[in-house]
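One example copied in:
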Amino acid sequence: VPFISYLSGLLKTQLLSDDLVAGVEIRCQEKGSCPAACHLCRQAGRETPSPTPVLLEVSRIVPLYSLVQDNVTKEAFKSATMSSYWCAGKGDVIENWCRCDLTALGKDGLPNCSPLRRPVLRLAPHLEPSSMMVALEWIDVEPFIGYKVSDYIIQHKISSPKNENSVINYSPSLLTFVHLRNTD
């Protein structure tokens, strides 16, 4: 089966299915084929180049463990994922804190499976720098356990009026959320 046919089949299945994959858009575009007007491309015995499809466009992040159907496997996968996020893969997550493995203890005997962030010195966002003044802020707080950053790609779809030469432009912008779990 040619690759483009396989992808077209995927696209049709995605469109006809009742349970679409959340946040994933499948688009097939033919790129790289010769224009019909180009005489240089029409050579005897040469096939036209196969089109290059655009496969997947992920517009929303879904945790991997949410894709697993079996409940026992899902819980095990979720636990491993949370350990990786929160404890740098060196411990178990118990409610809202890390229980470190014995191998995660440092020379001082303290757990280092969820290391503290280093202090940050940065431009203060509430005061714009000028030629006379620059405002800085010092951030030195213990972090919440298990902060995680998820990126969401938001697309603005702009289309011209409906006619034969209709044009659709996608203007992507990135929105980042930080998920926090408090230790209180």
